[in-house]
Structure formats: C-alpha cells, structure tokens
Write a structure and sequence with these properties.
Elements: E1 8-12, H1 17-32, E2 36-40, H2 43-51, E3 58-62, H3 66-71, E4 81-92, H4 104-113, E5 117-120, H5 124-136, H6 139-143, E6 147-149, H7 156-159, E7 165-169, H8 170-173, E8 180-184, E9 192-199, H9 207-216, H10 219-227, E10 231-232
Parallel strand pairs: 1-2, 1-3, 5-6, 5-7
Antiparallel strand pairs: 3-9, 4-7, 4-8, 4-9, 4-10
Helix pairs in contact: 1-10
InterPro entries: ModA/WtpA (IPR050682)
Organism: Streptantibioticus cattleyicolor (strain ATCC 35852 / DSM 46488 / JCM 4925 / NBRC 14057 / NRRL 8057) (Streptomyces cattleya)
Keywords: Plasmid
Length: 233
C-alpha cells in the first residue's frame, strides 16, 4: 500500500516568494514526495492569520516578529533560522526615465516630482517608507497623491499607470517583470529587513516540516535567494 505524505502548510512573507516560486518549492516536493501548500502575504497579515487561529507548519517572516510568537508558544524558538535579508528599492514604468536616487537629496527630489508614489500599507518596506516620509519632512506632500495599497506588489501600480514610482523590497519589485527596477534606496535612507524560517510548535517534531525548514535554509535556497535580489544570511 502506498502512503501519501502529509501535506505541509507554509506561511511565507512576500519578499521570498519569487525564490520559492522559481523552483525551490517544486524541488522540495519532487525530492521528498511531500506536498506543500504555500500561503504568501506580508508579515503583518500572516500574523493576523495566526492570531485568528489558522494552522501552519513552517513560517517565513520578518525576524523581529518571531519573538512574540515564541513567547506565546506558537513557534519552536529552537528552530528559528535567519535565511535572507533585503533592502528597499524603487521601480518605474516600462520605458520611463530613471530618476536619480543616488543621494538622499536626489531621492527626495524624485519623490516630490512624481505624480504618485506607490507603497504598501502592511508590508515591511511600506511601514518603513511611511516613517521615512515623516523623517524627510515630505509625508503630507507625497501622501496627498500617493497610491497606497493594502498588500501585494506595488510595481503593478506603475505598470497599470496609477503611479510613477513604486517603493518596495527589491525582491518584491522583481516579481513584476514589466516594471523597471531603478536602484536600491541611497545608503543614507536605506533599510534592510531580515527574514527567518521557523517551525510551528505543533510541527516541531514532524520530519517533513523539519526537512522543509532545512531545504529553505540550505545551499540551494541560498542560490535562489541571491538570484532574486536577496542577501543570504
């Protein structure tokens, strides 16, 4: 009799989705025979799902969000492993001129000149960018004509004409190939977000879940992260 492996549920931040969609999860399923159901969302919506009682086996999320989950016994802290980090960048519509964003002053000028700037309301990059606008003293001016989305890929807004500039993690901008990635934010205002993988407390002794965690933090995963604008930890 053939025994079908238990399906695993992966909750994952959007920042690593391109790496996972480009063969990393398929490779795990082919090698292990274990099917994986992946749920991709920014970290904040993922935490809301968990708070609402949705079950998962493996979680990839912003590292800083995992400590409260460990304290509540939701994840096994011994399995927490940093896998990648990414900086924030910007993209423009296909064929559009690339603004100079090489310095803080140039970046501010580009934002002020844009018809609309798109960013996410719940993503790590969008949360940071909203604070950055306040720090730069241009929040009211930029937000008065911004395209703020709840979640998803902000570069879609420059492709469909809603915005002139999209702000998001570099790896997430890559997910909309029609958009043109200009550059990372200048060093003076750059912000890196680290992502870690961990097992739920309920799955901490499950061999399949442990195998998936090892796969997502191994050499093959590292190569996939690098190909999609992520820095390996």
């Amino acid at each position: 009799m053939t025994t079908t492996a238990r399906s695993l549920t992966l909750f994952s931040a959007l920042a690593v989705r391109k790496a996972y969609d480009d063969g990393l999860l398929d490779a795990f399923e082919a090698a292990s025979g274990t099917p994986v159901t992946a749920v991709f969302d920014p970290t904040v919506p993922l935490l809301r799902r968990i708070e609402a009682g949705e079950a998962f086996d493996v979680l990839v999320a912003v590292t800083g969000s995992l400590a409260p989950l460990a304290e509540r016994g939701v994840i096994d802290p011994a399995t927490r492993t940093a896998v990648a980090r990414t900086g924030v960048g910007l993209a423009v519509p296909p064929g559009a001129p690339h603004p100079d964003v090489s310095t803080r002053a140039a970046f501010v000028s580009a934002l002020r000149a844009a018809r609309s700037v798109a960013y996410s309301r719940t993503g790590a990059s969008g949360i940071y960018f909203a604070r950055l606008l306040e720090d730069l003293g241009i929040a009211e001016e930029v937000n008065s004509r911004a395209t703020v989305i709840d979640k998803g890929f902000t570069a879609e807004a420059v492709v469909d004409g809603r915005a002139d500039i999209a702000i998001q993690q570099m790896s997430e901008l890559l997910f909309v190939p029609e958009a043109e990635i200009v550059a990372p934010l200048p060093d003076e205002v750059q912000h890196h977000t680290e992502f870690s993988v961990a097992l739920s407390a309920a799955a901490s002794s499950d061999p399949g879940a442990r195998a998936l965690l090892t796969h997502l933090s191994g050499d093959r995963a590292a190569a996939a992260y690098r190909r999609t604008h992520l820095e390996v930890m």
